[in-house]
């Protein structure tokens, strides 16, 4: 329904009336439209008129469940049926007869130090500058979206909760794993950016006549409403494009943070603890190397031989 409503709005560049949406999709569609306006994907240029927000990509035709999701579901179902076979509840695990789809591996991308610096400079005056810095530090999106002001004490950030988007709903709960529950000493520029963001939010709340609490989420819009996960990702990529940088996935910020730290000689155990990962997983998944480093490593293999042959 949400995709159809958004596509309908996108099909009317000059805007569409609220009544036009509800008459086509029913009264329930109005709630979706209100949610999209709150998330920033839809704007209201005039009273009662709704249009796609600038920079918002029109929805694509749904492609069904991803191959990775199907495989994960089959793994879980097979495990459950294995237990059922052992207990004598079923005679055969039929899930093992289902051929699992091939998963197309997505090449992860990272920014260089210079590109990361260019992005920081570009978004320095952006309202969400502090949140972008947290992403560049390697925090998960769910960790940033679930962060409350009470979890920031001086230069220490305590990750204790996460907010995950599931369709149009949001669920809040414990971090992804026990390793994800951690306390991080933040760089000075991140601490300063968060302090400025808190002052700005208190001023916004004062204008609206809203009360302030340290239990308030950090990732909120000017009106105090929580920032939607997908809107934050879209805004990050919009800013990357505007800065003339390669448009990477928001999650690739974690890969960038890991790569820069490892390339700087940081201990694997320290980088893994910072990201909330097992060291083995860090090396297998996040240990990217820049092209320049790869070239240097290749040259070093036969460096002495090359020098000897030239003399």
From TrEMBL:
Belongs to the 'phage' integrase family. The lineage of its organism: Bacteria, Bacillati, Actinomycetota, Actinomycetes, Mycobacteriales. It holds the Pfam family Phage_integrase. Transmembrane segments: none annotated. Gene3D superfamilies: 1.10.150.130, Intergrase catalytic core. Keywords: DNA recombination, DNA-binding. This is Tyrosine-type recombinase/integrase. Residues 106-299 form the Tyr recombinase domain.
């Amino acid at each position: 329904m949400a995709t159809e409503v958004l596509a309908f709005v996108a099909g009317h560049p000059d805007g569409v009336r609220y009544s036009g949406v509800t008459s086509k999709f029913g009264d329930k569609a109005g709630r979706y439209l209100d949610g999209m306006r709150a998330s920033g994907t839809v704007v209201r240029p005039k009273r009662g008129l709704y249009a796609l927000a600038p920079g918002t990509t029109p929805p694509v035709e749904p492609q069904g469940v991803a191959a990775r999701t199907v495989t994960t579901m089959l793994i879980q179902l097979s495990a459950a049926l294995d237990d059922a076979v052992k207990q004598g509840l079923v005679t055969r695990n039929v899930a093992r007869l289902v051929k699992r789809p091939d998963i197309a591996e997505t090449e992860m991308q990272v920014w260089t130090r210079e590109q990361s610096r260019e992005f920081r400079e570009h978004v320095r005056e952006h309202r969400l500058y502090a949140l972008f810095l947290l992403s560049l530090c390697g925090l998960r999106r769910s960790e940033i979206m679930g962060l409350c002001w009470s979890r920031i004490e001086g230069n220490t950030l305590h990750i204790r909760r996460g907010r995950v988007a599931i369709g149009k709903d949001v669920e809040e709960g414990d971090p992804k794993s026990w390793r994800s529950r951690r306390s991080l000493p933040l760089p000075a520029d991140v601490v300063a950016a968060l302090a400025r963001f808190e002052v700005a939010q208190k001023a916004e709340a004062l204008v609206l006549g809203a009360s302030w609490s340290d239990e308030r989420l950090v990732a909120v819009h000017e009106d105090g409403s929580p920032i939607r996960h997908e809107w934050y990702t879209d805004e990050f990529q919009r800013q990357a494009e505007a800065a003339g940088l390669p448009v990477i996935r928001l999650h690739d910020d974690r890969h960038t943070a890991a790569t820069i730290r490892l390339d700087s000689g940081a201990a694997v155990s320290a980088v893994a603890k910072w990201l909330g990962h097992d060291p083995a997983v860090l090396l297998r998944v996040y240990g990217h190397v820049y092209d320049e480093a790869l070239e240097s490593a290749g040259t070093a293999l036969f460096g002495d031989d090359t020098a000897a042959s030239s003399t």
